[in-house]
Amino acid sequence: MELKELRKNNELVDLFCTLAEIPSPSLQEEKVINWICQYCAQNNLECEKDDYNNIYIKIAPTDTTKEPIMLSAHMDVIGDDSPVITYLDGDLIKAKDRTLGADDKAGVANALYFAKYLKDRKDLKHGGLEIHFTRDEENGMSGIKNTDFSRINSKYVLVLDSDALGQCLISGASYVMVDLKISAPKGGHSGNDIGDSTRENAAKLIADLVSEMPQGVFYREGDKVVTSCNIGGITAGDLNVTNVINTDAHATYSIRSSRKDKENELIEMMQTTVNNFNKEYPNIATATITFTEKMPMFEKNEDNTIPELFEKTAKQLGITPEISSFHAGAETHIYANKTNAKGEKFSPYLLGLATVCNMHSAREYVDYKTMIKGQELLQAFFEAFNK
Questions:
Q1: How large is the average pLDDT for residues 313-329?
Q2: Alpha carbon distance 339, 157 (integer Å)
Q3: Spatial CB neighbours of 121, under 8 Å, sequence gap ≥ 6
Q4: Distance, CA of 99 to CA of 80 (rounded, Å)
Q5: d(Cα 4, Cα 18) in Å, to the nearest integer?
Q6: How far apart are CA 169 and CA 45, in angstroms?
Q7: Counting runs of H as helices and runs of E as strands, what totals does the chain give?
Q8: pTM of the model
Q9: In this structure, are residues 98 and 362 in contact, taking their beta carbons and an 8 Å threshold?
Q10: Which helix H or strand E contains 19, and what residues bound it?
Q11: Largest CA distance in the chain
């Protein structure tokens, strides 16, 4: 089957391809924003933008005794603004010689299609649907960071940005940037001063200190990594200059964790290692370590409503569910640390409604049959949620 024929016969696939064919690199999403707004106007969907051009779509409840729920996805993609030419390879939709942008146009398409579907379902009693489309997730998450959360009434947020059909990810790791620096201010000449015991080479000292620091997996639960520490790089001196006792050295680390107690334990261990170093080298060298949170933690909460319902619905449809955590960051992390218009803390989940492979590369593709099955799962889940 040709993609043209498939698009003619399947509205969801056509919607996805149309969105994918609108280039929308981070912070250059204007064309896709305008297209989505026009789509909403044509289908009588309430659509608004905030000051940052994030999009909010709402479908009013038909039963105010029930809870609303929100779908979220990002509109930007990895790649430039060159043309996106989609084609079909078996069951796979790909783009010629560039990234497809199924991350996260598959999520946007599934949410938009569902909104149109729900608008026409006059028989279904529900607590309302909210949809939020953000900008710039790939580059710096400035879209979600500039979201007006006072516009959102839902407590439960389904972030449609996982890469495998049937995934429901219930926690995700933080990202803490670690800067480790050593100053050995005396320095000197490696020939004249090498015998002075009050002088130490910062390059040697940081090598010693790094060897004392944790590296790799710090804590796991079963086969899942919960907390890890990874060195990014080390700098000290000049590779072409060997007759200098170096005075400064610098190393960087990343800490990732989905449990705050284990993150704190790791940070305390690293800080203690630095404190012990400073006790060993008084008046000779000083080490400093700073910890900067770049991505807040998405911790698992005690409310199991969504994962249990998702797992049950997926199994009923013959989809193998995966309820797990992930050792990376997503917009779930921002939602998890914010409150809605009612002052309720969000309960976010990262869902997979399509299988997307080789993301962020020219080999990226989406299995269109999984996207269709994902829409079936979303519709069944929403009905079960509103029973």
A1: 96
A2: 11
A3: none
A4: 9
A5: 12
A6: 29
A7: 10, 17
A8: 0.90
A9: yes
A10: helix 11-20
A11: 89
